[in-house]
Amino acid sequence: MLSLEKTLNGHSKAISSVQFSCDGYYLASASNDSTVRLWDVQEARYISSLVGHSEGISDVTWSVDSNLLATASDDKTVNLFDRNNGELIHTFEGHSDVVMCVDFNQSKNLIASGSFDKTVRIWDVNERRCLYRLQAHSDSVVSANFNYEGNLMVTGGFDGCVRIWDVETGNCTKNFLINSKPVSFARWSPNGKYILVGSFDETWKLLNAETGKIAKTYSGSNFNKYCIFASFFLSVSNYFVSGSADNSVCVFDINSKELVQKLEGHKDVVVAVSSHPTRGIIASGALENDMKVKIWSNQDKE
User: Fold this and answer.
1) Model-level pTM?
2) What is the pLDDT of residues 172-215, one digit of tens each?
3) Which of these CATH numbers, 3.30.390.30, 2.130.10.10, 1.10.1200.10, 3.30.200.100, describes 12-227?
4) Which of 6, 16, 81, 155 is least buried, going by the fewest C-beta atoms within 10 A?
């Protein structure tokens, strides 16, 4: 079972997103204080801050080589940073409203961003330009995620839909109406066969990516109209973890649908979670009455 290993302090406003780097050496924490703080995972030590946004940051993502980070911000931009020296490499401009989500593809040459302006933009990292502006949803876009191969992207929106896109053409290939409630999160499973979806109906759902049929439904994580993150936690077992509006971190068994554990310790809504790529640890971050990042460890898997 997981237990609290370390609490990381330093942000001055709510934590919005936490993400382990793909090599597992670093943790990035994004905040409404307009910064990303980088942490050494092994020593749970602060390294540096990434600065360049004029308003709060909603999401952060790593390139597969762990050298680049991209951030989504309330200032309507996406920033590209160099992890090695902390420099702002480029600012992608074009969204007309708050940018809620951001994701790198596996080839690290594309970034997807979703916005309250109802669009998704796909940016060419090398040419520093927008390849596609997708009129993605009829309401705010809050989640965008490339599959492992990078040929497909899934998006989730407040219109209650999950959509799959052909990255090469920019065409929508599938549209799944989940329910009448807003979709707040959508992410591919590692094998690409399923999509994990969070919704304001207070459930997590595992969708068949081919048919849109609901394979599993999970209850126990509270949303309360917050965009809560989730992360597959396969280094320990067939689990996924999510935040919750009751100030906890939830650990679910994917197959049995059981809520295996609730991790208590935060003092506000936990919106941000991330699973380490190889080790039995997760990170979580909470809103403004807490402002802390916590590291939880499963010692059996260390």
Assistant:
1) 0.96
2) 999 999 989 999 999 999 999 999 999 999 999 999 999 999 99
3) 2.130.10.10
4) 6
